[in-house]
Amino acid sequence: MIGLIQRVSEANVTVAGEVIGEIGKGMLVLLGVEKEDGDAEIEKLANKLCRYRMFSDEDGKMNLNIEQVGGEILVVSQFTLVADTQKGNRPGFSRGATPEHGEAIYKKFVHALRAKGMAVSTGEFGADMQVGLVNDGPVTFHFNV
User: 50 near 118, Cβ under 8 Å?
Assistant: First the structure.
């Protein structure tokens, strides 16, 4: 499971011209699901994101987590994160989960975040989405669990 996490002052996702998910201050999570991902990866990444200190304290140091700043999370599926880009001029997706498995893991991941008390908005799995964001910093982290 791969998560590309961006600290944002706002973010939204649009499908067919309609905003279907939006947040204020918080994190945008672009989530790529691999074939072998399951409950262990879901819990590991969800726990990491809830505890990760990527928000600035009063001294400007990254010492606060999402809960401490009252932030929100926008989760958007992005299968291209699992692409193999090592060979040739075209990405390979053999590591990626099937659409059925990917959607199930995506939904379980969102549920895991909500079960931890996080305010979560989402995109639409498998849809052609337009993602808008204001990256705060910019601050971006790559997690591979």
Answer: yes
Q: What is the pLDDT along the chain (145 residues), one digit of tens a residue?
A: 999 999 999 999 999 999 999 999 999 999 999 999 999 999 999 999 999 999 999 999 999 999 999 999 999 999 999 999 999 999 999 999 999 999 999 999 999 999 999 999 999 999 999 999 999 999 999 999 9
For 32, the 3-state DSSP assignment is strand
Beta pairing partners, 134: 10
Range of the domain at 118: 2-131
In a domain, 13, yes or no: yes
Residues annotated catalytic, as ranges: 78-80
